[in-house]
Specification:
The structure is a single chain. The protein is mostly helical and 99 residues long. The relative contact order is 0.06. The radius of gyration is 19 Å and the shape is extended. 70% of the residues lie in helices and 0% in strands.
Length: 99
């Protein structure tokens, strides 16, 4: 995606935020969020595949991948740890039984 395409998407989102009627604005925002939620899984899979390929085929370090893709280092690290989800859904570490 070119910078121009990203700008157009951002501009469209800005227009949704400028809808004067609160009910119409919330309805539009809900529609946008629902549409994006459907895309997130595929977008994430594609990003994760590229991260792994850059590491395996080009030998890039985690930091190099993060810089090249303009993403956080922690995102790259999470891909290799196999972690998905937010901190609120992360499984808790089970403690050793005392005794």
């Amino acid at each position: 995606m070119s910078d121009e395409e990203v700008r157009r998407v951002a501009d469209a989102l800005d227009e949704v935020e400028q809808i004067a009627d609160l009910e119409q604005r919330v309805r539009a925002k809900s529609q946008v969020m629902a549409a994006q939620a459907e895309r997130n899984k595929e977008w994430s899979r594609e990003r994760d595949d590229l991260i792994r390929r850059l590491n395996a085929e080009e030998g890039l370090s985690y930091r190099q991948i993060a810089a090249r893709l303009s993403i956080k280092l922690s995102t790259v690290q999470a891909v290799f740890r196999g972690y998905k989800g937010s901190g609120t859904t992360r499984p808790k570490v089970e403690k050793e039984p005392e005794g």
